Amino acid sequence: MRHVTAPEGYCNVDKYLSLISTKWTAHIVFLLNQKEVMRFGQIQKELALVSSKVLSSRLKLLEAEQFIWREQQKTIPVTVNYGLTSKGKELAVIVNQIIAKSDSWNKSTNNDNSM
């Protein structure tokens, strides 16, 4: 199944903004950037509010767009590891900048409201 982040004909900016703004996607990128390699269960535990179905969907979306890699080990039960590709690490830099800027805006908004 092919995941589509934006309809055909959208510019790449819209495509990637849509991807980043999809719920939990930026969280997953941020988390994998912090931990480097994680199993599905570890990611789900860290993002306690995300359902298995949604997490699986977001991981497939990120893999399809080559932001993360997936490695399935032949163990019983099956072990699947996830990590960021070099493209994913570039995205993580942007996600971290968005986090820093939103924190800055939040602090200035709170300071403006206290006057």
Mean pLDDT: 87
Helix content, binned percent: 55-70%
Rg measurement, Å: 16 Å
Major pleated sheet: 3 strands, antiparallel
> DSSP helix count?
5
Assign an overall shape. Answer: globular
List how many beta strands DSSP finds.
3
Strand content: 5-15%
Unreliable sequence segments: none
* Through-space gap between termini: 53 Å
Query: Helix/strand/pairing class, anyone?
Result: alpha+beta
Name some characteristics of this structure.
3 strands, three-stranded antiparallel beta sheet, 5 helices, globular, 115 residues, alpha+beta
What's the quick description here?
It is built from 5 helices and 3 strands, in the order ααβααββα. The protein is an alpha+beta fold and 115 residues long.
Topology:
Blueprint: H1 12-21, H2 25-35, E1 37-39, H3 40-46, H4 52-64, E2 68-73, E3 79-84, H5 86-113
Antiparallel strand pairs: 1-3, 2-3
Helix pairs in contact: 2-5
Textual characterization of the structure:
The protein has helices at 12-21, 25-35, 40-46, 52-64, 86-113; strands spanning 37-39, 68-73, 79-84. The protein is an alpha+beta fold. The model has no long low-confidence stretch (mean pLDDT 87). Helix 2 crosses helix 5 (86-113). It has five helices and three strands, in the order H-H-E-H-H-E-E-H. Strands 1-3-2 form a three-stranded antiparallel beta sheet.
